[in-house]
Amino acid sequence: MRTIQMVDLKSQYDLIKDEVDQAIQGVIDTSSFINGSQVREFSTALAEYTGAKYVITCGNGTDALQIAMMGLGFQPGQEVIVPAFTYVATAEVIALLGLKPVFIDVVAETYELDISQLESKLTSKTVGIVPVHLYGQCSNMEEILAFAGKHNLKVIEDTAQAIGAKYTFSDGRTRQAGTMGDVGTTSFFPSKNLGCYGDGGAMFTNDENLAEKLRMIANHGQKKKYHHHIVGVNSRLDTLQAAILNVKLKHLDRYSASRNEVANTYDRAFEGHDTIKIPVRSSYSTHAFHQYTVQVEGAGRDDLKEYLSAKGVPSMVYYPVALHQQEAYMNLGFKSGDFPVAESLCRKVLSLPIHTEMKIEDQEYIIEMIKSFFE
Ligand SMILES: *Cc1c(COP(=O)(O)O)cnc(C)c1O
Q1: How many Å lie between the centroid of ligand 1 and the Cα of residue 176?
Q2: Is residue 3 part of a domain?
Q3: Ligand 1 centroid from CA 178, angstroms
Q4: Closest ligand 1 atom to 199 CA
Q5: Is 122 exposed, middle or buried (0-12, 13-18, 19+ CB in 10 A)?
Q6: Model confidence pTM above 0.90
């Protein structure tokens, strides 16, 4: 039987082995494992790539969210609006900082937070909104920024799945995911679109003072060694990871193009299918296709998943349980039925294998197996 993977990081590495090995050896040769020159080089290169004025690297994407909220001065008891259908990290840091996550339902077609519900979530304690560019496509930033501006809220874009995606405003301006809100956060977890070989993360901002503060918080609240101005954390991108990311950033456009090719092939295969609903492309964003996620109509999603697994085709459910139904967030007092779209998506979504080195014969096999389930 074939061995198809959700994400094939080994094949990706094989094609850039010489560059990566050299970069890693370079770090070992200098032994600058923490704060080596590659870290600064990478943040400069990433700023150039994304168009963000400042890029502050840190230990992972979850830390990036936490540091962003600390940097923006969110205080315990205040409220932050966050989609009920996302990875837990987004809500976790809100709770961890003693803030209250205020869940909002999402749009079934694009998975972005439903802007028409923002008004109803607003209280005198609301300080921020965290749009999540889920699966690789930007949320409706124009409306979110307008709403935030009107109500004096901060916007933190969770760009862990959408690095490189481009958003177009109605006046024609385009901006990259993560560079439109007060802070954008991302993750370099190995399977992310720009992944390192361990943990890593970064924040984007165009505000110089905020950039300085984020940098300080990520580094124990210090500007100068052993002089601590504010309470911070220890969250660093290590030099080895930065060196690897320097290599991989050069390939990111090619990686995004490959992901889009795979997505287009799936689209063509399932367009008009009775049961498999292909991803809806929004008019204002390109898609980075971190995930190719279909919706399986009816009750057959889990059966399809099991069937595929028996045929050697992996698939994943991102995510099986909405955040308001997670045990850890029960104390917030939400109940089943509060976010019907999120709850229904948990029963319908299925992410298919997608990565940068997908072989066409493998993808043809995946498509054939999916179609055969319905015959
Ligand atoms: C991966 C991810 C994170 C967290 O990133 P880590 O580097 O694993 O901490 C946060 N939000 C979303 C939407 C993610 O997909």
Answers
A1: 18
A2: no
A3: 13
A4: 7
A5: middle
A6: yes
